[in-house]
DNA sequence: GCGACAG
DNA sequence: ATCTTGTCGC
């Protein structure tokens, strides 16, 4: 398996917010740049990114798994570690995970055609979840796939794969609960950047032909547990 | 005022 | 996210 290993020397070109107030200000500024309609070309290479933390939380590991969009087979991987720079605060998760993710994506020789992010996109109280943040910072199309709900309400959905229910918050559709496998809990899918909601749903079903989680996320997840 | 709260 | 084994069920 091809891999690149970078040390704890990562940096982000512009200063990263340190306080909650700063992060909220940045979030308010960046949220306006999110595009929630389809705006991407042919999908050849897709990539998923996942973050993990050391036991004491001081180090952040980011794993990127690049796959062929048709065969869903791993084509390349990146694993890097850098100091953690922000605490976990619900609604501000991206300020904890995005910097390492963006840097790891930058280590790919070629930018992928689509990012699959383990977290919410617009299904967020201020419409700026992790997938939006990473999408806007990289400029790449991104979709958010979360294993649980952050905000919003949805009606019951069918038990079979493909069943879905729109996720509503303050009279707005912010994403969808989507069943990718019969009898399992639904995933929460929402646009990250440059992808519309219906396309997000179609793509997640395509990328998760067998298991509950999309293959890209499964691979990135497995990779991120391989440090040490 | 009280509970909920991605990873 | 992390601490963590076996076990029940499709």
From TrEMBL:
User: Pfam families this protein is in?
Assistant: Endonuclease_5
Q: Which GO terms describe its molecular function?
A: deoxyribonuclease V activity
Keywords per UniProt: Cytoplasm, DNA damage, DNA repair, Endonuclease, Hydrolase, Magnesium, Metal-binding, Nuclease
* UniProt subcellular location: Cytoplasm
- Enzyme Commission number(s) from the entry: 3.1.21.7
Where's it mainly located?
A: cytoplasm
Q: Where is this site: Interaction with target DNA?
A: 88
Q: Which cofactor does it need?
A: Mg(2+)
Q: Which domain of life is it from?
A: Bacteria
The protein's enzyme class: hydrolase
Q: Which residues bind Mg(2+)?
A: 50, 118
- Name the reaction it catalyses: Endonucleolytic cleavage at apurinic or apyrimidinic sites to products with a 5'-phosphate
Identify its protein family.
Belongs to the endonuclease V family.
* Entry-linked PANTHER family: ENDONUCLEASE V
Q: Which NCBIfam families match?
A: PRK11617.1
What task does this protein carry out? DNA repair enzyme involved in the repair of deaminated bases. Selectively cleaves double-stranded DNA at the second phosphodiester bond 3' to a deoxyinosine leaving behind the intact lesion on the nicked DNA.
Report the protein name in the record: Endonuclease V
Species assigned in the record: Azospirillum rugosum
